[in-house]
Predict the structure of 7-cyano-7-deazaguanine synthase.
Amino acid sequence: MFKNEKAIVVFSGGQDSTTCLFWAKQHFAEVEVVTFDYGQRHKLEIEVAADIARDLGVEQTVLDMSLLNQLSPNALTRSDIEITQEDGQLPSTFVDGRNHLFLSFAAVMAKQKGARHIITGVCETDFSGYPDCRDVFVKSLNVTLNLAMDYEFVIHTPLMWLNKAETWALSDELGAFDYVRERTLTCYNGIKGDGCGECPACKLRKAGLDEYLTKRGGVQ
């Protein structure tokens, strides 16, 4: 559909953004990625993202967003804050303004590079209470960015209505299942692949993986 156009993928090196990168490479003539250094607990995330970008032959830009750590203390940026999820409250891993700022800065970069398409792996189905993963937020920001820069951006969210099992299925359809499983970093404790198995991100990833493998009839 967009074979003659250029896209920017918001890229962390995790399961979702790597699946989106494979999706983008199938849909666009030229793909680059942008990774944000916001003081996350594990710098390995940035290293993993760089390794994948290099391996897949896409240009990567790393932007310094360390101000987020100063403005929004949370469990993803502070090792002294416990990863928790209380009923009726946002998880301690929620970073106020993160997706808003990431997409906004990705758009500024995209315009300078002549790209009109931005891809992000946010998902409302498994959004864990994160308000900035909702479809209504992305659509609203898309309009705002177009008006702010007088430029016709399109923000694509290939995973928006997929649960984790369906995200695994999409990676399989893209021929990237094993790559995503082995090379990505989703774990809040900084362990590649299937991760620690204990943090919320690993539990969500594993539950989806088990569900998909059961449906596919494959082995664990």
About this structure: The longest strand covers residues 28-37. The chain has eight helices and five strands. The chain has a mean pLDDT of 87.
